[in-house]
Amino acid sequence: MTQITGQTKLLGVIGCPIEHSLSPAMHNAALADLALNRSQTFLEYVYLPLRVEPENLESALNGMAALGYRGFNVTIPHKQAIMPYLREVSALARAVGAVNTAIRRGGDWVGTNTDVRGFLSPLETLSRDWSNLEVCVLGSGGSARAVIAACHELNCAAIHVVGRDPMKLQQLQDSLRQTDASISIQIRDWSSIDTLLPDVGLAVNATPMGMHPKLNESPLGETAIALLPPTAIVYDLIYTPRPTQLLALAQRQGLQTIDGLEMLIQQGAAAFELWTGESPSISVMREAALNALG
Ligand code: NAP
To answer: Considering 40, 157, 172, 279, which has the largest number of Cβ atoms within 10 A of its Cβ?
Structure first.
């Protein structure tokens, strides 16, 4: 069995709460696999879940630097709050407005965002002409911003963002304009969704509807899903339950569906590569995530 020794370097994830994060299981499985493939008897890296209260963020960053951490993931509630403490934030993370990965570089922390890569990964396996395709993003929170940046990267024909709070939608549009003027979105309220759906090729759920404790909820009902073209893809960022109510309804109508598990795995894999310079085994990460989900 590979051991933690004095040579083992530290990685982790900061968040609050952190108890339910799947990242330690995924990363430690991939790190053990890496050691095994290199026939090493010790672990080169170990990945720890770190509960950091919002008021302790700055001291936690200093502490992690002092302890020699090589990098870490960032989750709720620190994804935006961490940005002022980083020496450098990638253009992508600035466009998304959130950092989910920090890397130690030259004695400082630099931040980026791998959620965009994670979201794109299952789409890139499909041969579609995204430039002809209109996207409908349901929800306007943190992950919606990563989806918008990803759809911009795909060069989609139009990105419609549907939300329930007109003020938040306007703020989203204004802040996107400030961070990257080339990203353009059409903001919509839920009442306009029926007129939108017949032209939508990719519908993305970026709300918690369908996730515990709202397992029986779906952002789109059966009638709304029936309005989507038969070639449409329905993508739910939620990774448990599998399938969500939304994806079960879409599958019943014969639509192609994608759940959030691959995004979770691929954002982790992209961070792993940034820290270690090595590609992790995706199948090892997937198996560990599925085991952790039970
Ligand atoms: P967030 O920042 O809290 O945003 C949630 C959005 O959903 C907000 O726009 C919110 O509207 C909207 N919303 C919540 N309840 C709603 C309802 N009943 N009806 C209509 N809109 C509703 O959350 P997030 O970080 O973006 O996460 C969203 C989902 O994505 C979560 O389920 C999360 O688990 C999942 N996620 C998955 C991954 C992955 O790797 N697969 C990564 C990130 C997130 P208001 O602003 O009006 O409240």
So the answer is: 172
Residue pLDDT, tens place only, 233-245: 999 999 999 999 9
**Cα-to-centroid distance, 238 and ligand 1 (Å):** 9
Coil/strand/helix, residue 251:
helix
Give 1-13 pLDDT, tens digit per residue. Answer: 679 999 999 999 9
**For a substitution probing ligand 1, which of 211, 216, 237 has the most ligand atoms within 8 Å of its CB?**
237
Q: Is 79 labeled as catalytic in the residue annotation?
A: yes
Pick the CATH number of 117-259 from 3.50.50.60, 3.40.190.10, 3.40.50.720, 3.20.20.10: 3.40.50.720
Residue (of 139, 156, 130) closest to 209 by Cα position: 139
Across 58-71, average pLDDT: 97
Q: Which atom of ligand 1 is nearest to the CA of 210?
A: 32
